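Figure 2 data, in text form.
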Amino acid sequence: MREYSKAKKRIDVSVGESVKILRELQELSQNELAELTGIPQSTISAIENNRIQLGVERAKVLARALNCHPAVLVFPGWDAEHESAA
């Protein structure tokens, strides 16, 4: 059997892009996500376009709606093997 190597990271994803990617993967519009979370559509748009910061509380609400851990949204480029938490 051939040995496989770990995939290399090809692009950096911003916080806003991670929200957009997860939303689109679940086939949700910004309006639908707004209804699920109570966050205005205009705010979701601003987050996705990196015009405003996500923030911890919004990350928790969006993570519940997008079925992921908040850290996936807040730290999209985190590499646990190479970065220190301290």
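Caption note: The first helix runs from residue 15 to 25.
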